[in-house]
Amino acid sequence: MIRLVLAEDQAMVLGAFARLLSLEDDLEVVATAVDGPAALAAVRSHDPDVLVTDVEMPGATGLEVAAALQGGRTRLVIVTTFARSGYLRRAMDAGVAGYVLKDAPIDRLVDTIRRVHAGERVVDPALAVAAWDAADPMTDRERDVLRLAADGLPNSDIAATLFLAEGTVRNYLSTAITKLGVRNRIEAARVARDRGWL
């Protein structure tokens, strides 16, 4: 029996996944979670074989959850609507073993879970090629600053949140804008989000 924890912030999608996966003779859903912290708690409490998680969730993204669980026994499968190469590349760097799009048939998710449990890595080939070709040019700190700027925070608040000098925040934003080849922080945030780098 493959024991699963499911993490998804949309209740209807979470319920549908839980029901469909429970129909399989070799899959058992032992817990569900609606946000990143709950997903981490469920994994630590239930020690599942596989965590199936969305990327975008409140509290902590699926990628942050993956990074927090990296090196542990539980294998991770990302199920998302986002076919963005940046997300896939970051997921692979965080030790995610499977990446499935939500518009794929449920049979593909079931197959991915079984293969990941058996020790394989499973990724849509077209996405894998795109991720290899589209490297994220930003550093983690530039990404942190740009993420807060995208939320509308002024430089002074970003500096306070990240314990940086305001001039350092300006430098990180300027570098990110230059690397992305855009005119301002709003365009930089949009391009970075579209490519899955935020």
From TrEMBL:
Residues 131-196 form the HTH luxR-type domain. Keywords: DNA-binding, Phosphoprotein. It comes from the Bacteria. The modification 4-aspartylphosphate is found at D54. GO terms for biological process: phosphorelay signal transduction system; regulation of DNA-templated transcription. Residues 3-117 form the Response regulatory domain. GO terms for molecular function: DNA binding. InterPro entries: CheY-like_superfamily, Sig_transdc_resp-reg_C-effctor, Sig_transdc_resp-reg_receiver, Tscrpt_reg_LuxR_C, WalR-like, WH-like_DNA-bd_sf. Gene3D superfamilies: 3.40.50.2300, Winged helix-like DNA-binding domain superfamily/Winged helix DNA-binding domain (1.10.10.10). It holds the Pfam family GerE. This is Response regulator transcription factor. It comes from Pseudonocardia broussonetiae.
